Each structure stands twice: as structure tokens, then as C-alpha cells.
């Protein structure tokens, strides 16, 4: 979904003060082999660092500057047994993923309100069409690991519960109460969990 590259590569200069759509290129004379390799997925992620029991290690252009202008990126997703990568969407990319380890319920909802889902085992693949809300729930007894890929160097991720209940400044209680057809006390109790 990203624009086509105009050259072989354009390793991002993340330090540049020039702001453009994407990142400016580091001078080719300073580019080395290291710019085209990324070891950020080798670390075991800590899935108990949040209440969801999951952790996404991004392999996007901000973590891996060699991806700049190439229109692709990947994530590693670790999910504890019973943990969830909560409902979220990527405004700039479709997602294709493969379960590397574990048993994972993958689901998404179309713009017509249709829910599609399947429980996947290791080596099975899924696709989430661009912009649709989706989640992954570890339904197995071991830790789950997924590798996901995107047709954007920076797909963006809007995590529904955090966008609505943990934004700063806060979305007004009245807006959420009216939208979820509950009292403001319910909204406040949900917000309190994200503080
Ligand atoms: C999983 O849904 C991911 O965005 O990596
Ligand atoms: Mn996703």
C-alpha cells in the first residue's frame, strides 16, 4: 500500500530533522550490510509486561531503517496462554501472518459486520484485509508466537480498547457511556484499569 520506491534502497536517517512522507535517506556512502539485517525478533518477549498477556515486537521502519521506501514490514507477536493481542486495526496495511508456535484463535470483522475466525496451529497462515479490526487469542496451553507481515513500512496500529479508554487527554466519559449504552460508572471503571 505504500508508494513505489524510486531507487534500490533508501535506508532511513531517523535522526534527520527534515520531515517528509517517510524518512530521508542516509547517504549511500554510509550504508553498510548491517542496514539490511535486523535481529530484533531473536529476543524472547516478556508477555507479562501488560494486562493483555501479549507483546508485539515491531519490525517496522522505526526499528529497522533499511525498510524505508520498500513498502513492507513485519512483527513478532508473543502471547501467553490465555493472553490476547487485543482488537486493533492497521490504517495503512493488510496483514499476513503465520503461527510459529502454539494454538491461536485469529478473528476479524468486516465493514459489513461479519466475523471471520479460525483456530490456527503452527505453520498455518492467515490474512487480515487492510483496516479491518482483528485480534489473536492464545487458546493453547503453551506460549504462542506469530510472525506477521504488512504491505507498509509503518502500518500503524490503533488498539481499540486503548484508543477509546486510555487516550490522553481522555475521551469524555459521556461519549463512551452513550456509545456503549452503559452508565458512566462502567466507563470510569474500565478507564481505571488502564491507568
Ligand atoms: C498482529 O495482529 C500484528 O499486528 O502484528
Ligand atoms: Mn495486526
Report on this model:
The protein is of the alpha+beta class and 195 residues long. It has a domain of 39 residues. Helices cover 12% and strands 29% of the residues. It contains 3 helices and 10 strands. It has a 5-stranded antiparallel beta sheet, with no helix packed on it. Strand 5 and strand 6 form a beta hairpin. The model has no long low-confidence stretch (mean pLDDT 97). Bound molecules: glyoxylic acid and manganese (II) ion. The site of manganese (II) ion has 4 residues, from loops.
Name the overall outline. globular
* Ligand types: glyoxylic acid, manganese (II) ion
- On the 0 to 100 scale, the average pLDDT is 97
Strand content: 25-35%
The biggest beta sheet reads: 5 strands, antiparallel
Helix content: 10-25%
What is the CA-atom radius of gyration, in angstroms? 19 Å
Number of helices: 3
**First-to-last CA distance:** 35 Å
Q: Low-confidence segments, ≥5 residues, pLDDT <50?
A: none
Order of helices and strands: EEEEEEEEEEHHH
Number of strands: 10
Class computed from helices, strands and strand pairing: alpha+beta
Q: Strand order, biggest sheet?
A: 1-2-9-4-7
Features:
five-stranded antiparallel β-sheet, 195 residues, single chain, globular, alpha+beta, binds manganese (II) ion, 12% helix
Amino acid at each position: 500500500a505504500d508508494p513505489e520506491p524510486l531507487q534500490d534502497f533508501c535506508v532511513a536517517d531517523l535522526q534527520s530533522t527534515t520531515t517528509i512522507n517517510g524518512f530521508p535517506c542516509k547517504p549511500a556512502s554510509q550504508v553498510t550490510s548491517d542496514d539490511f539485517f535486523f535481529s530484533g525478533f531473536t529476543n524472547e518477549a516478556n508477555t507479562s509486561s501488560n494486562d493483555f498477556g501479549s507483546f508485539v515486537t515491531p519490525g517496522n521502519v522505526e526499528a529497522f531503517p533499511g525498510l524505508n521506501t520498500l513498502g513492507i514490514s513485519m512483527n513478532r507477536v508473543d502471547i501467553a496462554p490465555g493472553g490476547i493481542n487485543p482488537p486493533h486495526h492497521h490504517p495503512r496495511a493488510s496483514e499476513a501472518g503465520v503461527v510459529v508456535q502454539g494454538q491461536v484463535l485469529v478473528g476479524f470483522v468486516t465493514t459489513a459486520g461479519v466475523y471471520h475466525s479460525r483456530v490456527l496451529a503452527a505453520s498455518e497462515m492467515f490474512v487480515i484485509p487492510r483496516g479491518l479490526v482483528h485480534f489473536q487469542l492464545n487458546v493453547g496451553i503453551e506460549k504462542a508466537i506469530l510472525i506477521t507481515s504488512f504491505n507498509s513500512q509503518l502500518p500503524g496500529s490503533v488498539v481499540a480498547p486503548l484508543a477509546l479508554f486510555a487516550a490522553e487527554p481522555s475521551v469524555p466519559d459521556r461519549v463512551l457511556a452513550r456509545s456503549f449504552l452503559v452508565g458512566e460508572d462502567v466507563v470510569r471503571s474500565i478507564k481505571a484499569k488502564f491507568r
